[in-house]
Amino acid sequence: MTRRPTLLTFFLLLLASLGFSASAQAERIKDMGQFQGLRANQLTGYGIVVGLAGTGDDSLDYSTLGMKGAVSRFGLTLPAGVNPALKNAAAVMITAELPAFSKPGQRLDITVSAIGKAKSLRGGTLVLAPLYGADGQIYAMAQGNLVIGGLGVDAADGSKLTVNVPSSGRIAGGATVERAVDTGFTATDQLTFNLHQFDATNAKRVTDAINQALPGSAVMIDGASIAIRASGGGDERMRLMSRIENLDVIRAEPPAKVIVNARTGTVVINGAVRVGTAAVTQGKLTVSIKESPTVVQPAPFSRGQTAIEPSSEIGVDQEYRPVMMIKPTASLSQLVDAINRMGVPPGDLVAILEALSQAGALTAELVII
Which of the given ranges, 45-54, 155-164, 308-317, 329-338, has the highest pLDDT on average? Predict the structure, then answer.
């Protein structure tokens, strides 16, 4: 009997065929981490979006106060106690990322999201608003017309249709940088390169590759950071960084892990997983109950009543599956073959992997998310 290959089978076989070859390929240092201090900074701000087609929010005090503050910049003062009825305006939060080495005058993309009960920001325009950093200083100014990827429609009978999220949108190049962030790039006599993930072997290989190109210039701080001797101004340091980033390093084989998503039943096994000697069997017991009630008619002129007589049929089907022997130090491809021969679904595969881990036969970290 042949079994139709499943998507999980193909995925596991692909991992098996590529798991070891991928670890033997050289990678650029720039793909393994980044230099310390050269990171983006988060900016946030509060603003008002105007020009909405009756989908704004007039039920929140801070949206009313925000609009009063916006119009007061132009010398317009509303009398006390007057509500401007802001159905065509909405209070929003603005977020953006300020890349490293951004200079005044450069543009940033921003995301605008409604705070209150505004149904949609479609067709709205963001009024000039400042964007603040974590230190409370203004680093950019935002303004522009929103692009909304969502749609929301309400009918008179109360029915609604919503596509994506109409209360959030983006403005490409909607903010202008007003202040640069001091990265301290030239303040010290060394550069620090941080790996994306802690790995002592990778840190050693990166250090060796740098020292081979620049003898005696790099030392390991720990399993995730390498200190590189640097001198001179920005031009010399940027040239040094460019040279280091493009050096090739053979990445170390990652730690053996089995990732299990308990909600979706997805199982991912990397190529470093090994399995010790183990015997595995997986049974399936199916109990079926079939109800076939019959109608019983009374005899003629007996004054009896029609009745329903229950009739149940119980069946038990137990599928026999032989015990599979897994050889010691089995590779991922051998493990996939054994699992495929057993024909287990993803849910049962999770149970088998957990049992192998508890039995000490799975040389991998089992991570359940």
Answer: 45-54
Half-sphere exposure for 261 (CA within 13 Å, toward CB): 6
- pLDDT classification of 71: cutoffs 50, 70, 90: low
- The residues spanned by each domain of the chain are 7-21+256-288+316-368, 26-38+184-250, 41-177
> Residue 157 phi/psi, 5° resolution?
-85, 5
Residue with more model confidence, 346 or 141 = 141
Other CB atoms closer than 10 Å to residue 74's CB: what's the count? 6
Alpha-carbon span 161 to 119, nearest angstrom: 12
6 vs 98: CA distance, rounded Å: 45
Is-contact 116 90, C-beta < 8 A? yes
H or E element in which residue 195 lies: strand 190-195
Residue whose token pair is 């090994």 = 274
Going by C-alpha positions, the residue among 54, 46, 67 that lies closest to residue 122 is 54
> Phi and psi dihedrals of 6, rounded to 5?
-95, 170
Query: Rounded to whole angstroms, how far apart are CA atoms 1 and 143?
Result: 66
Structure tokens belonging to residue 50: 């105007």
Strands 168-177 and 107-114 come out as antiparallel
| Structural contact between residues 163 and 120, judged by C-beta atoms closer than 8 angstroms | no
Please state which CATH number belongs to domain 26-38+184-250. 3.30.1360
Residues 6+ apart with CB under 8 A from 330: 274, 275, 338
Nearest Cα to Cα of residue 111 among 173, 162, 39, 62: 173
What is the signed CA dihedral for 195, 198, 201, 205, rounded to 10 degrees? 10
Contacts 24+ apart (CB under 8 A), 69-77: 70/127
pLDDT digits (tens, 9 = 90+) for 244-301: 999 999 988 888 888 877 777 677 777 777 777 766 666 665 555 666 777 777 777 7
Query: Which residues, including other chains, have CB under 8 Å from residue 149's CB and lie 6 or more apart?
Result: 164, 165, 169
Residues 6+ apart with CB under 8 A from 336: 9, 12, 13, 16
Sign of the CA dihedral with 194 first, then 200, 205, and 209 last: positive
Please tell me the pTM assigned to this model. 0.62
- pLDDT tens for residues 2-26? 444 454 454 444 444 444 444 457 8
